[in-house]
Structures are given as C-alpha cells and as structure tokens.
Amino acid sequence: MTGGATLNIGGTLVNLDNLCIANYSCDFGNVVVGATKKRSFRFTNVGKLAINFAFDKKILGNYGISIEPDKVQKLAPNQTVLFNVVYATRKNAKFGKVKSIVPIDLKYGPSYAIEFVANLTIPELTMSTGELDFQKVCVNTRKMIKVRLENHKEVPCDWQYFFKADVSASKEGKEAGERF
Fold first, then answer.
1. DSSP strand pairing (111-121 vs 20-32)
2. Please, is 28 exposed, middle or buried when counting C-beta atoms within 10 Å of its C-beta (0-12, 13-18, 19+)?
3. Domains, the chain
4. Distance of alpha carbon 1 from alpha carbon 37, whole angstroms
5. Which of 17, 39, 129, 148 could potentially form a cystine with 4 if both were Cys, beta carbons 3.0 to 4.6 Å apart?
6. Alpha-carbon gap, residue 20 to 42, rounded angstroms
7. Is 56 helix (H, G, I), strand (E, B) or coil?
8. DSSP 18
9. Angstrom distance (rounded) from CA 151 to CA 136
10. More confidently predicted of 157 and 84
11. Higher pLDDT, 147 or 180
C-alpha cells in the first residue's frame, strides 16, 4: 500500500482511500431549465478526530453545482458545517431526471458521496384548440368562444395576454376617420 490509511478486517487489509462509507442525497426537486435553485445541508463530524476535506471544483463545475464552503479544515469532533449549494442548469439541458454523484474524500480516511438529484423541466401552456375561429360575426355585436389553457408540467406557468393592434387596420381607420 502506498501511504493510504488501511484497516485490518478479518486478516484482510482494506485500503480506506477506496472505500465509500455512505452516500447522501441532496434533492433539488423540479428545476426549470436555464434557472438556478439553492439548497443547504449540514455535515457533522461524528468521529473522534478532526477532519479535513475538499470538494473537487472541476467535478462540481461539470455538473453546474457550486458549494460554499468548498473545503473544510480541522473540523473537530461533534462540530457541524453548513453548506450552501447552488445548482445552475444550462439552457440547452435535456429535460428529465438528472443525477450527479460528487465524492467527498476525507484526508487519510474513507470517502463519502453526495448524490445531487433534480428533475429538469420547463413551464408549458397548451390551448384546447389550435386556432380561434369566431366564424361569422355581425357588425356591432359580440361573440364569445371558450378556450381552455392547461399546464401539464410540474412547475407553475405564468402567462399574460397582450393585445397587439393590427397596424394596417389602424392606418385604415385613421385614414377613414380623416375622410369623414
């Protein structure tokens, strides 16, 4: 063995550098593609010795994750550290469940892993009909049709209606008004 911590289990030496003691999960839930989401978690040293560890920034960056603090020095037994995690999705990310496993390597000890999980989605509004057809409408009368707007996605869909006046119609109306 080359300088790594080992443990004798039933006469067999186990290299602790390659042993993953536990996997933890940080679930971001539904995340809109192109947006960021934040979570926090606490890490407590339940051992009898102070520990040092750092997150691999390259691995985190590849997944769009940033953690503060990104390293811990001399965390005493029974001490706790609060981590703030930001998950930034890319605009071209594929929809669906994503899982990113990030190792936590303790210096001279076993490793742990955090599994960051999210469901990437987008808000989507669908209309019950493909087009609005009022058919025949008499001059100076109103006609009402019903349209249903539905959101079948996991995240809220905010929407607004903006009336865009027909430029050619308003010019004709203006010219017609000037003629009278």
1. parallel
2. buried
3. 17-121 (2.60.40.10)
4. 42
5. 17
6. 19
7. coil
8. G
9. 31
10. 84
11. 147
